[in-house]
Design a protein that fits this description.
143 residues, alpha/beta, five-stranded parallel sheet, 38% helix, 17% strand, disordered C terminus
Amino acid sequence: MAGLKTILCIEDDRFISELYARALRRAGYEVDEVITGPKGLEMAQTGKYDLVLLDLMIPDMTGIEVLNKIRGVDGQGLPNTKVVVTTNLDQDEKTRAAIEERADGYLIKADITPRKLVELIKQIEKFGEVPEQSQGPATGPTS
């Protein structure tokens, strides 16, 4: 997907959300921030976002639930919107594989600085997904 312009950040940690949003805005992206799953889902389903950064642990609805509703039963929901899952939680291989099957990327937050996030989004613009070597280790630190 070339020309990502609008990004929705669904993240309940305001510090992380602000860091990401500030770096992305400086790089020329339009960014909306939301902290709860239901509000994030509502905003994502408008279809106005090119990319959704989705934390797994958010209030009122898990990130996995949001991802599943965005993608729909057939996995084809919002085909023009990229979804990149962000987390600091350990995931077993089976769970991670299931998430990656529905998402366009999977990032360990502890490994991603705001600068690196901007670089990764530029790679998504160029290649259509987060390059494999940038997705981080199979498991990350727990939070």
